[in-house]
Amino acid sequence: MQDLLYFIQQLINGLTIGSTYALIAIGYTMVYGIIGMINFAHGEIYMIGAYTALIAITGLAALGIAWLPLVLIVALICAMIVSSSMGWAVERVAYRPVRGKHRLIPLISAIGMSIFLQNYVHLAQGSRNIGFPALIEGGFRFGAEDSFQTSITYMQITIFATTLVCMTILSLFISRSRIGRACRAVSQDLGMANLLGIDTNRIISATFVIGAALAAVAGLLLGMYYGSIDPLFGFIAGLKAFTAAVLGGIGSIPGAMLGGLILGVAESMTSGYLSGEYKDVVSFGLLILILLFKPTGLLGKPEVEKI
Amino acid sequence: MLVLEDVHTHYGKIEALHGVSVEVKKGEIVSLIGANGAGKTTLLMTVCGNPQATSGRVILQGRDITRDMTSNIMRSGIAIVPEGRRVFSGLTVEENLHMGGFFNTKSEIRKSQEHVYELFPRLKEREHQRAGTMSGGEQQMLAIGRALMSRPNMIILDEPSLGLAPLVIKQIFEIIGKLREEGITVFLVEQNAHQALNLADRGYVLETGRIRLHDTGKNLLANPDVQNAYLGG
User: Per residue, what are the HEC states of A81-135?
Assistant: First the structure.
């Protein structure tokens, strides 16, 4: 019984963290699906989302506004607006001018953008980690008083629920809306979409904006969950989300969701049964294994060379 | 409707069109024939602005579009059925059609969709099927239907018969004839010279980036040079 409770606890922790990986991974996978590049600055967009949320929360506290739903919604909206603008600007400044050039050039540009944004936040906010107020406290406990208890915190429930809502909205948007349909069309044949009169640059911008907005949501959630942020906050999370995207099949949105959850669970199981120090070993080990044995990922389709 | 004046087009440093002049008048079917690599597709794509002409002028409905962006050109009453069909294989038939009418209102889309289904009843049967799972002929019908969705004044078709069964080719050419009856101007590129010239009011013969011959469809069919080179003697 105790063992089972312990296992369930790891599962809950894993799904919580995994769902946020999935949120970030969608940004990687959508951009890759449309223009075939890895946006390595995406982790920084997420980090900036977390910082913006923290600034908004601090600002509201200074104004004496403490009503939790209002604080969270304002922080969320601010984070999404700032991150989306950043995502849009990064594409305009660093990727669009080099689009269509050799594959390595946008990649290097992306890494440069990532380093730039990290250092910009270092300068603007300082290098030390800053405490992020745990706005949502408490939770449920299961199991006997005197032995191991499984707990689900309200924070974890918030993370689940928010992620679920975001994924549902995104899925509906992609499958039903006019712009979502255009996103799918552009990712299949950009040139043809252009021949139908569609301004493909706008669709590309839209994917950057959507990915960044989801990363900002993850930034707020994980900031609260971990309780502190620093300018390197986005680096590891970005790598993990990238791993999740590759695991699920880069270019596939359901793949990114699945990959994120699997990665999160794998990590928390490692921490729970082996040691927390091995969790990164396991995630990046998974990345290597998937690249060796199923490079298209779990839900990805084999890439067909377009003629 | 469409005029090309002394158009030169380059791919990188290689010149693919060496000063081509073509005119397509309103309501006509004009066929462009030529061997592989003659520059037929390049000519059509130059009209669409991708690549743009390096010199010369492209005039569509009285407006100089030589330097316009592809997305703007394709929104000004012209539509293309490209080589290889290029339907969005992961999208359903209906979604593909809606992409064709992207800039129209919902009621316009509904009307055009019904019209396309009248022309191609097969597409209605397959409305919710993914385009990639259909046969080549059905995909070609979809590509034509998608082009019609924007209610164009002029339609450009690049090798619509390529890789299709004779029966399907016959159907496609019948539809092209119907388009003229509806008042749509047609600019057709074909390797299938016989049928293309038969249907056409006028035709052009393109050879290695230059217009070699220009005449009515009938005269070209009777021309011994054309017969030797393109109609299998």
Answer: HHHHHHHHHHHHHHHHHHCCCCCHHHHHHHHHHHHHHHHHHHHHHCCCCEECCCC
